[in-house]
Amino acid sequence: MSTIAEQGGALALQPRPEEAKPGSLADFRPPSVPLTTLGLALASFMQVLDTTIANVSLATISGNLGGSANQATWVITSFAVSTAIALPLTGWLARRFGERKLFMWSTLGFVFASFLCGLAHSMGLLVMARALQGLIAGPMYPVTQALLLSIYPPAKRGHAIALLAMVTVVAPIAGPILGGWITDNYSWEWIFFINIPIGIFASTVVGSQLKGRPEKLETPKMDYIGLASLVLGVGALQILLDLGNDEDWFSSQLIVVLAIVAVIGLAVFVIWELTDDDPIVDLRLFRHRNFATGTLAMVLAYGAFFSVGILVPLWLQYDLGYTAIWAGFATAPIGLLPILLTPFIGKYANRFDLRLLASFAFIAMSLTSFLRSGFSLDVDFSHVAWVQFLQGLGVALFFMPVLQILLSDLELHEISAGSGLMTFLRTLGGSFSASLTTYAWTSRGAIHHARMTEHVSTLDPATLQQVAAYGGGDLQRGAAVVEMMISNQAAQIAFNEIFHLLGLLFLAVIAFVWFAKPPFGAKGSAPSGGH
Predict the structure, then answer these.
(1) Do 310 and 203 share a structural domain?
(2) Number of domains within the chain
(3) Are residues 335 and 409 in the same domain?
(4) Measured on CA atoms in the order 402, 408, 413, 418, is the torsion positive or negative?
(5) In a shared domain, residues 213 and 337
(6) Which of 123, 255, 262, 354, CA to CA, is 20 to 30 A from 336?
(7) 39 and 74 fall within a common domain
(8) 215 and 230 inside one domain
(9) Are 411 and 290 in contact (CB under 8 A)?
(10) How many CB atoms lie within 10 A of CB 355?
């Protein structure tokens, strides 16, 4: 479900006013609208699918490539950070090369990067291939929505958006199940190789159907300093978060250097973007109250939500012994309610105060986090799946209200930049939270392991006898069994602590939503819910 909110990011590529003239883009229709729609939808499905398909395969990937649980999350975070960095470039690339060519080359580039992911024989190579894949994926969803909107008349564009929204809802649900099935029955490499035929088909179909599509190309100015400082600052910060636990944090000279680079890079980025006439990321949009509070709520809540999507599959496999496909089945119910409710929420949400809907969503997500904080190693499949299903109610009510709130006080000409900035920050928030969550799980687990082993005395005859009993009379075998039991219990306690904290975080986000002020209709349109 991690990409439902990308509907907002796609607004960054709405057709420009000068293109909507008689005889130009407004009148263009491909030879087959259904076939073009299929190609665009498949490309979107492929890109969104790859944000979740690897989640349930992380344990297998790390085992096959000799990585730890922390290193396995690099497969996710490298993709997310690269996508976030590429997002601000979408508008520039579309104006420079045209939306049709950008879609074709991005899709084929995504196929090539997927092929490299499947060929990777070490964790380092896989992470680099995933970073390349994410960099190419950045413009894919926004340009896909722009192309989809352009081939439908204005009266039917709502149906087109609903179709694409449904694709972005279904893909994250299919990801864990499909990834688990492929990993268990074939090998993890095929979770990337399946992109090859899909991407080639989508690029070929859309490219041929949209041949001759009128586009106004420009040579826009590139904010090189803003881009360089963004890549340097965000990249150094993400590497710091990914390596921190393995390098013992600030006792390592490498971590200290990365921290300095991150601080300087991000400081230069903020100062430059606030003072440049044509910034790559318009930070001045935060002067709007609803945008500032809504974006903060979106980033924090999405970061917490992303942590759930990372931690639950890892916990199911490492601690409960689930296979990849059964971990996918256990987590998949989170998408059922969003699929059923999304059309109704889009139609009726504006009849209510959007702050109430968002608050209800965060209460539901908080409640499910608190339920997980009470899990034990004996929890059964149905209980895990039921809590996932309940969280789907929060997911269904989360994205649309918060997105509308944060865009509500922007000027019409700021909507595109605002939705792009929100998507950029939301993607970074998800990536950073993935690194912090796995670090917290590992470090808290180690602390609890140390505390529990303090109570196991190797000098107590009764204790030694009990340990030997676990090994069928063999003391060494019994010690290994006890060690595994302590490790699993320590990881479970850490898991419970993290979800207790996530529950509190979801409740805290409610306060930010209520700092927003109605009305929540876009400027220049009729007021909507929230009076």
Answers:
(1) no
(2) 3
(3) yes
(4) negative
(5) no
(6) 354
(7) yes
(8) no
(9) no
(10) 23
CA angle 389, 502, 243 (to 5 degrees): 110
CA dist., res. 37 & res. 42, Å (int): 8
- The burial of 16, by beta-carbon neighbours within 10 Å (0-12 exposed, 13-18 middle, 19 or more buried), is given as middle
313-316 contact pairs (CB < 8 A, 24+):
313/55, 313/56, 313/58, 313/59, 313/176, 314/58, 314/59, 314/69, 314/72, 314/438, 314/441, 315/491, 315/495, 316/384
Higher pLDDT, 306 or 455: 306
What CATH number did the domain enclosing 383 receive? Answer: 1.20.1250.20
Same-domain status, 346 and 242: no
Summarised one tens digit per residue, pLDDT across range 112-154 is 999 999 998 888 899 899 999 989 988 887 788 778 877 877 7
Residues 349 and 487 grouped into a single domain? yes
Instruction: Summarize pLDDT for 474-488 with one digit per residue, the tens.
Output: 667 777 777 788 888
Please tell me the distance from the alpha carbon of residue 175 to that of residue 167, in angstroms, as a whole number: 12
Closest CA to 1 of 256, 175, 247, 233: 175
- Tell me which of 241, 257, 279 is where a domain ends: 279
In whole angstroms, what is the distance from residue 237 CA to residue 257 CA? 10
Q: Nearest 5°: CA angle at 310, between 318 and 73?
A: 80
pTM for the model = 0.78
* Helix 157-185, helix 140-150: angle, nearest 10: 140
SS3 of 110-174: HHHHHHHHHHCCCHHHHHHHHHHHHHHHCCHHHHHHHHHHHCCCHHHHHHHHHHHHHHHHHHHHH
Q: Which domain holds residue 530?
A: 285-531
User: Which residues contact residue 72 at a Cβ distance below 8 angstroms, ignoring those fewer than 6 apart?
Assistant: 58, 59, 61, 62, 123, 314, 438
**Among 189, 219, 249, residue at a domain's last position:** 219
Q: What is the pLDDT of residue 17?
A: 41
d(CA 193, CA 195): 5
Say which DSSP state 479 is in.
H
What is the DSSP annotation of 37-85?
A: HHHHHHHHHHHHHTTTTTGGGHHHHHHHHT--HHHHTHHHHHHHHHHHH
Q: Does residue 452 sit in the same domain as residue 312?
A: yes
What distance in Å separates the CA atoms of residue 141 and residue 187, rounded to the nearest whole number?
28
